[in-house]
Amino acid sequence: MPRQKRRKSSGNPCFPGGIPGGFDVIGDIAVVNIPAEYEDYCSEVAAYIAGKRKNVRTVLNRTASAGSDFRVPGFEVIYGDPRTVTVHRESGLSYMVDLKDSFFNPRLCTERMRVAAMVNGNEIVLVPFAGVGPFAILPAKRGANVYAVEMNPAACGWLRKNMELNDASGSLEIIRGDAHDIPDIFSTEFDRAIVPAPYGFEESLILSASCVKKGGFIHFYTFKRPSEIDGLRESYERSGFETVSVRRCGNVAKGVARWAFDLRKI
Ligand SMILES: C[S@@+](CC[C@H](N)C(=O)[O-])C[C@H]1O[C@@H](n2cnc3c(N)ncnc32)[C@H](O)[C@@H]1O
């Protein structure tokens, strides 16, 4: 049930510069992470968001960080319909997701388009950590044969649903499994791997790349401080990768950003 307003206030007392940390809109659900010092203002935050984004029917506040293996945070409903299932539209495709059981990050939309634009229709592409499918379905729609690996059974269910919703069934195979087992699962030599690894999964670069052919590409996502990037590039080179490009794509914590490394296996 929507949470009761704890404190009455007039006007908009909190956010002359916007809500700290901002908010995400996934389909018609807004997700916010209200800092402790503002927790008395949940109703005002929700009303502010709903006033700014007219398509929003529900506002969820994160109550626990996405610490689990499946990267799913805890939520409380602070505005509107008490529900967590929605359909998000991105790059002409639809993604259905239940935010209480599966991860989805709308902030990576541009990044997904950037990478998918590099994929040729005849490629075989590996996508570990596929979630509900945004990194996997886009290249499948470009005609590539995509193998998506995801460990969360609920996310696999949504991935299947989204594959059908977007008419990508002919070019996408879903493997429910642990990305650590990739070298044992596949004997395929992939042309490309798109690896949106969760925080701390550095080993998934080498594991995924072991199934990519020489000259093939790996798009690897990692969370680092800017001062670590030159050293990382050198360590990737020592491990047999050429860094084609590296770009920063979003801050995740104070001083820490998400980085996309486009690597070529030498
Ligand atoms: C950072 S999210 C990326 C999800 C998706 N690619 C996206 O952009 O929305 C990580 C995903 O990896 C999955 N995951 C976590 N550990 C895994 C593992 N060892 N093997 C396979 N999938 C895993 C989680 O369930 C989650 O869906």
From TrEMBL:
Location of the SAM-dependent methyltransferase TRM5/TYW2-type domain: 23-266
Species of origin: Methanolacinia petrolearia (strain DSM 11571 / OCM 486 / SEBR 4847) (Methanoplanus petrolearius)
Transferase among keywords: yes
Pfam families xref list: TRM5-TYW2_MTfase, TYW2_N_2
Protein name: SAM-dependent methyltransferase TRM5/TYW2-type domain-containing protein
InterPro entries per UniProt: MeTrfase_TRM5/TYW2, SAM-dependent_MTases_sf, TRM5-TYW2-like_MTfase, TRM5/TYW2-like_N
Transmembrane segments: none
Highest taxon, organism lineage: Archaea
GO annotations of cellular component type: cytoplasm
PANTHER family: TRNA (GUANINE(37)-N1)-METHYLTRANSFERASE, TRNA METHYLTRANSFERASE
Keywords: Cytoplasm, Methyltransferase, S-adenosyl-L-methionine, Transferase, tRNA processing
Any GO BP annotation: tRNA N1-guanine methylation
GO molecular function: tRNA methyltransferase activity
